[in-house]
Amino acid sequence: MNKPQKKKSLARRARPALVIAFVLCLAAPAAASALNVFAASSLRDVFTQIDAGQTYNFAASNTLQLQIERGADADVFASASPAEPQALFKENKCGRPVTFATNKLVLLVPKSNPGNIRSVYSLRAGGHTLAVGNKGVPVGDYTRSLLRRLGLSRVLTNNTVSGEANVANVVSKVALGSADAGFAYVTDGKIAGDQVTAIRLPRYAQPPVRYQICAVTPSAGATAFINSVRSGRGRSILKAAGFGLPPKG
Amino acid sequence: MVSLIALDRAGFLRLGAGGAIAAAAASGLVPALAGAQLPAATPLDDDVAFLSFATAAEAASRDFYRAAFKQGGTGLSAVERRHVDKVASAKRAHILKLNASLGADAPAAGDFVTVLPKGAVDTKARVLALGETLETLLVRVYLNGVAFAADPGTRLLLGRLLAYDAEQLGWLRAAAGHASPAGLLSPIDLEPAADELDAFLSTPDFPD
Q: How far A222 CA sits from the closest chain B CA (Å)?
């Protein structure tokens, strides 16, 4: 084998290694640029489906708001109620929030329904254990608003109520049978459908549950993420999970 | 638990005057004066439930009357259409009053929308039948509210709405050629009433 031929063969053998090195070089900055997305607990399943490549912090929206106010490193904030992102917007701590999904409340009971709860009005009798979001947590505030509209505020005093820090805890309590019932979103009822039954609540008493999203740290990545949530694909994923959708725009 | 209305003499006289004005207004003598001096509703405890239901149900019936007025060729006479239009306007005013009483608990525009059954206002018979269904529901809920609301002002508001809607119920029945029922209407609990009302409501951006 002469010299040029030897060189050619070496180059051919080195090509796969070069390709791998090149791919690694591309991948490294991509991983480093993963966004910190702060999102409401009820968005866990859909957001990881829409974009699995980001770093997520799922918690109650009011907790996330507080973390952002205290300087947490967030790129995007998605909340289960407009109150938190609107407050951050007013404080100049995030861009203008946009509504990207809606939801509804349901009353969840364990599949075995040990409390024999047939409707929200069954709770009037008292003596049940209830899992309810704390005041200030969107699902807790929505629940209190709904109960007030139904004239059932007293169910929070004549039943044994466990206050929960986020909607995921409400669902866990009911699914595990630690509570006879709990107020959560219709989408949570779908996720835990094999362990819980969702009882419909009167439409006239439903508070408007609206999810809003905003960029905390403005960047092309944050904008791209928000656009992906609001894209046709994002909307299909949200819809399949049971969320309602605002008109496109 | 039913509690008695606590009114002092001045309040009683005001109510009496209000009642006289309302009676005069009903007879067409003193329009738009009734109610100016009446105590405002300041709902206590679960009174909000009656008012919340009322605002949603009145909105559904207002939308129904509007649809009936707009729909041509139903067979309603010109006089009947004018009456339907007048009721729609009155219902709008009632909703504003209810929302003012609810304050922060009032539903926002777009919280729910009215969905009337297909063909509900196509013919006079259908218009009158659906109108009777909606007004009967309202009257029965108001009967319950008048009996059990804790706040006197709320009871009075519900009572005034009861009087108005009972009048419309009578009008609808007469227009349909139905005889007045022999018995009395019974109050209805909010639980079955909510089920009935749900058939006419939908949540925007959240199709069922």
A: 26
